[in-house]
């Protein structure tokens, strides 16, 4: 293999991508700040309604050491899910290493606040630049990762509801819906059939439906029962860590509702927030969490700060990590992309 002269068109495209990246990053930052501002405005309104002193007193109960424990438990979730992403990438045949896969996975958190979290597909863009693999070849990686999260959260919710003394209205339907969605997202024939039906019904976008059929075919790499079970276990461990963090937080604030119920409320609220389609589940998850805690007899002056803290140490902590790693991942991907073009 010999090095050829640089293609002027490719060089121009690379330069345009480099110039466009800061603009996209600035736009995403404004979106993130806007969402955070809306959440903050709602929190301030509720805090004013309940009384600032009560909310402040509850927040002051949390020490820096306890806050650090919550962040560490969230890190456990991110690391375990990042390792699962690496396992899936290797199973798919991607020529990527552990550090590279973790960089992609964690960097994608910066896009968690996009509607439906579709912005996290930036991971596919990085993979395309660094490996040359097309979007339809890496799409199964995203599908299986999301399906594994749904499976793990559905299992946790079902078990938590079974062991809690009281149930959650809508808990069973949400559990079943999550399992169905996870099953559908990992069935090659089902997705291929959906693509064929979509093409026939619409009669449009033939290339898009063809790409979806090819992506569905690649899902066969993930049908091993052993792989599915291992992925579910990794996901359960990760999400249980964050659920346990919520349980600890409530105990520290003097609102011990039991481990099973705390985990059930945390997972249910996370899933409910995702079902709203709002960026990162912002708004929906918080409302569900406060409402469910109220049903357990937790006063608003306790449920509100508890909800604020757990969302900061889970969702917003993940976004913060993503924003730190995002420019690094973007830089590495462009470097690989330019190197591949020059070969």
TrEMBL record:
Biased composition (Polar residues): 1-16
One Pfam family cited in the UniProt record for this chain: LPG_synthase_TM
Record's GO cellular component terms: plasma membrane
InterPro entries: L-PG_synthase/AglD (IPR022791)
Membrane topology: Multi-pass membrane protein
Taxonomic superkingdom: Bacteria
Main subcellular localisation: membrane
Keyword annotations: Cell membrane, Membrane, Transmembrane, Transmembrane helix
Localization in the cell: Cell membrane
Region: Disordered, residue numbers: 1-20
Transmembrane segments: 29-50, 62-80, 150-170, 219-240, 307-329
PANTHER family per UniProt: UPF0104 MEMBRANE PROTEIN MJ1595
Protein name as it appears in the record: Flippase-like domain-containing protein
